[in-house]
Design brief:
This protein has 451 residues and is of the alpha/beta class. It contains 18 helices and 17 strands. The strands form five sheets. It has a five-stranded parallel sheet with strand order 3-2-1-4-17, sandwiched between helices. A five-stranded parallel sheet has the order 6-13-7-8-9. Helix 4 crosses helix 9 (116-129) and helix 5 (73-81) crosses helix 9. Bound molecules: flavin-adenine dinucleotide and iron/sulfur cluster. Iron/sulfur cluster binds at residues 43-46, 49-51, 61-62, 104-106, 114, 116.
């Protein structure tokens, strides 16, 4: 990054201390026991329930709801966690409006689904609150598996393998486990250290050794892991970010949204985190919504998301777009960045060109321009898999669409190497999808090792 003098419009402590607490408090407070009971009554306990089909981890939703209704909260939590060990996190972060709740039959009559996410949180919070461990390690098999990456995919795989009695070593490049649960998800969705509470619960099963600050490609090599372990699972996530393709993009003032969010998530006192007065976010997915909303909640006065296509094309759901707008974020559609605007070595804004679809349905600039004032511009136009970590090893995995190719059991092109989560092709880039990948891979690894 080129050295520039500090922009005085980027400052910490824009809000009163209580505002930070309020802005980053629990966005969806838990149901009371009474509210939960009333909500369970709304479930029809459908046969062949569409909500179950819509859940990537296949949780038996009517069953766990019925158990809450009969006061069997432990049984309910067990229904959830046996399919999705990160059920507590997913209850908070899943875009339920496009998954289970989107499929709920209650939408037809009343346009109001059963609050499945809130009920899932009710049951799992009860379990954690009561310190009940539901899982124990199976009889030790003597098989050793290396899991690379301690995010949802890697941890879900490690936990399931431990249930089967295998010995697991998790190699994680950061100094904390959890992946984007710890470093990426918006702070107001997961207050109170939920991510680390889940990590502790998961490791409590035993048989999982963790090696932190150990990166594949830097400290360990894939070839060595394949030699020393019976199987390897790669849950590397996406370490790179797409560039805007603008001249001078490396200047101070242009930030990677994911890196800033990671910093925000690790900052205990948010009044110390500098934020701009005028912010422009480029992108249309969940990351764009999260960085825009969180910078606004940190006290930025003017935050605008600019997306090159229409509202209906955005990766973020309508509910997420609405959430950002409710928090004062403006969203502009059909425009792409053209150039950064500078004054006295400081970023002052960004110029955009309007876009439209041409006769062949391709995105094209119209030639008309407009500019927005900005002292911070955030790039949120997608993350990329960084294959360099693999090239550090002697083996090279087959990639497809820039991510690792896997079959339906999450086997890669290399024998005894599995992969899952965001780093594999066709990944849905959701926590719940990573958890499912880890589980599916663990089942396949176990079957293979026992064969
Ligand atoms: C800003 C943001 C907000 C999001 N919000 C939501 C949300 O609200 N709801 C939702 O469902 N999903 C959300 N997602 C997506 C979700 O977080 C991911 O889909 C999920 O975390 C994928 O899990 P994973 O295990 O594949 O990858 P990750 O969570 O990225 O974990 C990968 C792990 O591997 C480690 N690692 C990487 N390279 C190496 C290496 N070379 N050696 C060792 N370790 C390595 C990383 O440090 C990390 O711990 C969000 C994503 C982002 C970026
Ligand atoms: S679809 Fe809705 S009503 Fe039917 S079982 Fe699922 S949550 Fe209950």
């Amino acid at each position: 990054m080129k050295s520039r003098k500090a922009n005085s419009d980027i400052a910490a402590g824009r809000l009163e201390p209580d505002d930070y607490k309020r802005n980053f408090g629990d966005v969806a407070p838990p149901l009371t026991p009474h509210q939960a009971l009333i909500e369970t009554d709304r479930c029809y306990f459908c046969y062949d329930a569409p909500c179950v089909t819509a859940c990537p981890t296949g949780i038996d939703i009517p069953s766990f709801i019925r158990k809450i209704g009969t006061g069997n909260l432990q049984g309910s939590a067990e229904d959830i966690l046996k399919e999705n060990i990160m059920g507590a996190m997913c209850a908070r972060v899943c875009p339920t409006e496009v998954l289970c709740e989107g499929a709920c039959v209650r939408n037809k009559g009343e346009a109001k689904p059963v609050a499945i996410g809130a009920l899932q949180r009710h049951a799992t919070d009860w379990l954690f609150g009561n310190g009940i461990q539901l899982f124990k390690r199976g009889p030790v098999t003597g098989k050793r598996i290396a899991v690379v990456g301690g995010g949802p995919a890697g941890l879900s795989c490690a936990h399931r393998l431990a249930m089967f009695g295998h010995s697991v070593t998790v190699f994680e490049s950061r100094d904390k486990l959890g992946g984007l649960n710890e470093y990426g998800i918006a702070a107001y969705k997961v207050p109170d250290d939920v991510a680390q509470r889940e990590v502790r619960y998961l490791l409590d099963i035993g048989g999982i050794e963790t090696r932190l600050v150990q990166a594949l490609g830097r400290d360990v090599r894939l070839a060595t892991l394949r030699r020393d372990y019976d199987a390897v699972f790669l849950g590397l996530g996406l370490a790179g970010v797409n560039a805007l393709g603008l001249e001078d993009e490396q200047i101070e003032g242009v930030y990677d949204a994911v890196a800033y969010i990671a910093k925000l998530r690790q900052t205990r006192d948010l009044s110390t985190l500098p934020v701009g007065r005028s912010i422009v976010v480029i992108g249309g997915g969940m990351t764009a919504i999260d960085i825009a909303t969180q910078t606004r909640l940190l006290g930025a006065e003017d935050v605008t998301i600019v997306y090159r296509r229409g509202k209906e094309h955005m990766g973020a759901s309508y509910a997420e777009q609405e959430w950002a707008q409710t928090n004062g974020v403006k969203i502009k559609h059909w425009a792409k960045p053209a150039r950064l605007l500078m004054q006295n070595d400081n970023l002052k804004g960004i110029e955009f060109e309007y876009t439209r679809l041409d006769a062949k349905g391709r995105l094209a600039g119209t030639g008309e321009k407009f500019s927005l004032q900005a002292d911070m511009v955030f790039k949120a136009i997608g993350q990329t898999f960084v294959p360099a970590t693999l090239n550090g090893s002697a083996d090279v995995l087959e990639l497809s669409g820039g991510r690792i190719s896997v079959d339906e059991e999450r086997r890669t092109s290399l024998p005894m190497v599995w992969a899952g989560g965001d780093c594999v092709e066709g990944g849905k880039d959701l926590t719940v999808a990573g958890v499912q990948d880890g589980k599916v891979a663990a089942l396949s690894i176990d079957r293979t090792l026992r064969a």
